[in-house]
Amino acid sequence: MQYIPNIVFALLLIATSVFFAKQVGKIRRNILLGRDLDRTDNSSLRWKTMFLVAIGQSKMMANPLVSFLHILVYVGFIIINIEVIEIIVDGLFGTHRFLSFMGAFYDFLIGSFEFLALGVIAACAIFLVRRNVLKVKRFWNKEMTSWPRSDANIILTTEILLMSAFLVMNATDGILQERMFTHYEDLGSFPISSALMPIFDGFTSEALAMIERFCWWFHIIGIFAFICYLPFFKAFSYHLGFSKCLLF
Questions:
Q1: DSSP percent split of the chain into helix, strand, coil, nearest 5
Q2: I need a surface site. Which of 98, 129, 165, 172 has the fewest CB within 10 A?
Q3: Residue 74 maps to a domain
């Protein structure tokens, strides 16, 4: 019975990987339907343009604040999900915070992830307000209504929920570790979620463990769902196609 969570996790991981690979294969097949052109000239310029437009969001530079928030969400979400490596190991083998053996460097990583998570939550909240409350004009043009608007709202809301689950997971786990180890002095690795700990201080250890596990599963299942949804995300196909046409 103790291995059931590991088996469930392994099945979810395999199913997600297979589904994502198939969808990417379809997109790749469609891109390759295009006629080949010799794009070996100006290699450095092509790479520079790809990084500036596809990754650096240079089209947003007209509004530096919006550009910064886009980069924060984009880079923050990717960096935070380095933690998925640890989650996969923990999920498959039943360990807990497998990478914590790295000591101070692990504290630095988790602390950095928490600051980025807070930044992603704030940026996504601002984007939701801009789209749905302030109703910035370009978001209400004909080509941006219906699915494009829903698509953006789904992605932004999902990122807020995933980052929130990550912080609550750390907060409850921090309290549990504090209770288990009298001389536990590692709370510096939770600079943001430590502010949430007073909310859960009155909970029993059993309740905290349930909340921590719920957030752990919610976070990873949310990431798996996000991966499955990604091939249908408008920006995913755009970036793949843009990079293919620009570089190859």
A1: 80, 0, 20
A2: 129
A3: yes
What CA–CA distance (Å, rounded) separates 116 from 131? Answer: 22
Q: Is residue 46 part of a domain?
A: no
Confidence (pLDDT) at 235: 59
Q: How far is CA 152 from CA 83, 96, 103, 234, in A?
A: 24, 34, 38, 9
Number of domains within the chain: 1
Q: What percent of the chain clears pLDDT 70, i.e. is strictly above it?
A: 82
pLDDT tens profile 88-111:
999 999 998 888 888 888 889 899
Side chain identity at 11, as an amino acid letter? L
Is residue 44 domain-resident?
no
* Cα–Cα distance, 48 to 36 (Å, whole number): 21
Q: At 168, which amino acid appears?
A: V
In a domain, 162, yes or no: yes
Phi-psi region at 67: left, alpha or beta (left = phi > 0; alpha = psi -120 to 50):
alpha
pTM beyond 0.85, yes or no: no
The whole domain housing 105 covers 52-247
